[in-house]
Amino acid sequence: MSYQTITISNFRNLAEQRLEFSPLINIVDGKNGSGKSSLIESLYYLSVGKSFRSSKLDSIVEHNASAFTLFSVTEDDNNHQHRIGITREKNKSALIKIDGEFIRSAIQLVSITPTLVIEPETFELLDGGPNNRRRYMDWGVFHVEHRFSDVWRRYTKSLKQRNTLLRRGRIDRSLLAPWDGQMAIAAAMIDQYRHEYVISLVPVINDILKSLNQTIDVDINYYRGWDKKIDYKTILEDSIERDIRSGYTHQGPHRADIRIKVNGRFADEVLSRGQKKILIFAMILAQGAFLNRLSGKKSVYLIDDISAELDIEHRKNVCSYLEKLESQVVLTVVDIDSVLPLFNKDTDLRMFHVEHGKVSQVN
Questions:
Q1: What is the mean pLDDT of the segment spanning 272-296?
Q2: Averaged over 320-344, what is the pLDDT?
């Protein structure tokens, strides 16, 4: 899957324009603040219906406009095209069209173009909070296990209802029983999907690390969000008094986490900053490789400011790997010479320059 064209209007500081991308390597250069990250963000928005930088719409819509519009034409490996349009007005929900039809849920959007992004906050994956690691894990589970989305929706709906009841204080336990039962069934399925995904992903990460000339051996410890020796329904029953006092459900899949170990020790404690970055690159690249292995689908890779994140040796190894993927890559740099010589001259590569929000293709 790849973006053939994208049309942008009033998205952050980007001028109204239409761009045509290479199905393989695309390098975007420009000074800091020129709009490079906004271009990456617009592609991500077209793939999931939200931003990775901000949830505040006012900061995304160009300050003199009332709404932004994004439009793209994508093409899969069978030459089948999709036309995706998103319009978002301030203080209103987004309007999303796929092939001329309005859709109600962005889940349909996510399924069309699997998109992986590496940007500054991605590097909090190892030593940041568990929310980042759950998002990382669930991206993969969503794309490889088609039942996950529906099960997760049922679980979160039941969790919301249960927490609403808990906030009332002293309540009849019989009111919680139906929600506890539904949550227990969904939790068991979510736990199974996540556990199977993590186990399958680890060898792929290690294979990619070897491709990047890294000698470390990675393992991932999966924590499901409650005691692995006790079934979830019992957990809910036993923790009811504590949950009532707090007004929310303490344990469950919404508290799941993964911890990454290197040679038997926690990665965030033993790796240097540079080693952490190359490990995170390998973890993100592994998700795309694993999805491709299972389904034949190719992901789109969005990499913001690769030169700032990797030294020259690691950058060389990553660019070589990206080239061999034969997937669409859009990466930004301040200095195009920091990456251009690292790609083969025969690669289908396009260059773009951003200045004051205007993106121009460069020969």
A1: 93
A2: 93
